[in-house]
Amino acid sequence: MTLNQQKVLLGITGSIAAYKTCELVRQLRQDGAQVQIVMTEAAKKFVSPMVLEALSGRPAREALFDRSAEMTMSHIELARWADLVLIAPASANCLARLAMGIADDLLSTICLATRAPVMIAPAMNTVMWEHPATQENVATLRRRGVTVLEPEIGEQACGEVGAGRMQEPEDLKEALLSLAVPQDLQGIQALVTAGPTRERIDPARFISNFSTGHMGCATADALLNRGAQVTLVCGPITLDPPEGAQVIHVTCADEMLQAVEQHGRECQLLIAAAAVADWRVRKSSADKIKKKDTPPTLALEPTADLLSAVATWDMRPYLVGFAAETEDLIENARAKLQAKGADLIVANLIGDNFGFGDVDSQLEVVSIDETHSIGPASKSMLARDLVEYIAARLGSPASIIDFNARAQHKNTSAG
Question: How many CB atoms lie within 10 A of CB 202?
Fold first, then answer.
């Protein structure tokens, strides 16, 4: 999911944080958005309209009655044009005027005239931010449906330290992405597995792999952004799980399967992104195995096959598995699809310098009827596009919630 062809109206008000909007515009354009700048008079004291025009590729607008605009009514023209409205930075004065419904300049009038979602990123001195008047204005705007991006805590231009710093451009872009994402998975319960498993050798050692959980966590986050209720079953990871997910921590393959059995049967979607260890030691040692001249011989046995187990459920969820390969990517993914009885297999190549961790990658999504390429891109972008593709495959929420339809789909896929 990107902002490709999204029409973003970026309002800039009088704050020293206005200098950050140059980088924000660059990132939005890089992501494919069309950006229209609307500035207040105070904003021009902090950042040059000429610079913003060069970055956005459009004339910066400021006049309420612009004779060059359509029917000389800039506020109506731009209010209809915008898909998304972001005011960054939003000064204390801006918050007060929006809360009061004052419309005496182009930007404030657009906010009253638009039906597009409105998001604001406050930036001001920490005492001004904490003032009861400002907090009441923020509460009023939230009640009206405006998304408020809380300022960050840190050192400010005035030298004080506290809440009041505008969020960074990359965070603002992420927030816009979440605002642009359709809520087409509301009412859907999804379970995602993430990270590696650890299969014990002795109290000091285990068998595992290089998975970090980035893809699984990013996928859970993308599902949450589209309105799904998400349970995240994750092996040992160092990442912070996405806010809003029910998180279940496990260690080994058996524990992961038990968690999936317990929490997955009421789900309509299961995405198995975890890199479950394929083997475990047949009998682990209760004591640490001492280092000797002759290495110990470890007898291995297969771990539980999570995908195959879920595929046998009478009323199973729409099932998405992952495959990491070093060669013959599509052929191996298609073989896994048929062997496991999954609906989709998401395949990616791995090597010494790519495939695992927070690095750009590329996915091939294999189904019975097609192969769909995603990327190359970051894990978060891959996850957004993957979830968008899955949502399109699922169709309407009513069709996914119908357990009988899912059971029939399983039988058809297996055949």
Answer: 15
Spatial neighbors of 128 by CB under 8 A, at least 6 apart, are: 92, 134, 164
Q: If you write DSSP's letter for every residue of 64-80 in order, what string do you get?
A: SS-TTSGGG-HHHHHHH
Q: How far is CA 88 from CA 10, 32, 313, 317, in A?
A: 7, 19, 50, 42
The single-letter DSSP state of residue 190 is: E
Within its chain, how far is the Cα of 8 from the centroid? 19
Pairing of strands 118-122, 269-272: unpaired
Domains and CATH numbers, the chain: 7-180 (3.40.50.1950), 189-414 (3.40.50.10300)
Asked if omega into 242 is within 30° of 0 (cis), the reply is no
- The pLDDT tens digits for 276-316 are 999 999 999 999 999 887 888 899 999 989 999 999 999 99
Active site residue ranges: 158
Closest CA to 165 of 173, 153, 177, 175: 153
